[in-house]
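dumping the sequnces here before i forget
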Amino acid sequence: MHILLVASDRTHAIRFEQQLVRCGHVVTLASRAFEALDVLRAQQVQMLITDPQLTDMDTPDFVRIARKMGLAQYVYIMVLTTSHEQNTINALLAAGADDCMRITVDEVELSLRVRNAERVVSIDTRDEAIIAMAKLAESRDSSTGRHVERVRLYARELAQAMWEMGHYFGQIDANFVELIYRSAALHDLGKVAIPDAILLKPGKLTAPERQVMERHTTIGADSLASVSNTRTRCGFLTMGREIALSHHERWNGTGYPQQRSGEDIPLAARIVAVADVYDALTSIRPYKGAVAHQDALKMIVDASGEHFDPLVVEALAACERTIDQIHVREADPVESERLLADAA
Ligand SMILES: [Fe+2]
Ligand SMILES: [Fe+2]
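..and the predicted 3d for all of it:
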């Protein structure tokens, strides 16, 4: 495993490095937080072990930034601690650390804990395979598979904004933000079972065709349920199942498939509902053109409290500039040409 070890104290760094190398790991050393963030950006690191006292940044801030970087792979974050103080440990875990370990740890405990981290990272690799399948399923009705990518980026941004605004306090934390980024990719997985004649139909669907199309929610949820009885990391498949089933429910109870309403709809699904509709509005589809960012925003704000959870809409309004940046950066090729032409 490739481990990034961040230690401002040279003695600790050398001791840990030697122990980890003896266990067969590849170790990159960094002495400051900013240097470590550069390594995370440039290299495929699977685990980050960090000193409790960094010279250039607060450790919880460092953990939070590392967690928010949106790296392609999951990085297991372990923080070394000098104290058993509960508040310190809670702050680190809330910031997104996976584990805390005493700095005086012996070699056996260190190798066992790193082995546990390896187990989590290998489950993550399996999660990535499931996400890749979801993207493949989506490529049937979109030539690029970018809808899935954009929806998960929007969902993460919305969750992050809600966390910062204190919405649904206690339900949203760093792990929730990370988890929704991964699970949102599964929202339309069930479309794999929808016949081409309906999925790719350029015109409006008839009522019976719409019924078949709506089944992508239950099909997706059922297939995720069938694999989630194996051991899974941090509820990735559980949240994926909730999102797949409920991302077309509406706040006022007029959605599908269960006509759930308000907070009875799982929070992650309420967030993905906004992300999914925003993307549908701002993308070109076989049967419609793209709506401009500001118009899409207005349509969603107008539907707050009817179609959408008002607090998710509030978060969208708060982070709309970032959402627009993602929309421009991740646009499908045809849409991207149009945005460039508009900007010229
Ligand atoms: Fe859907
Ligand atoms: Fe979708």
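The domain at 2-120 is CATH 3.40.50.2300 (Rossmann fold).
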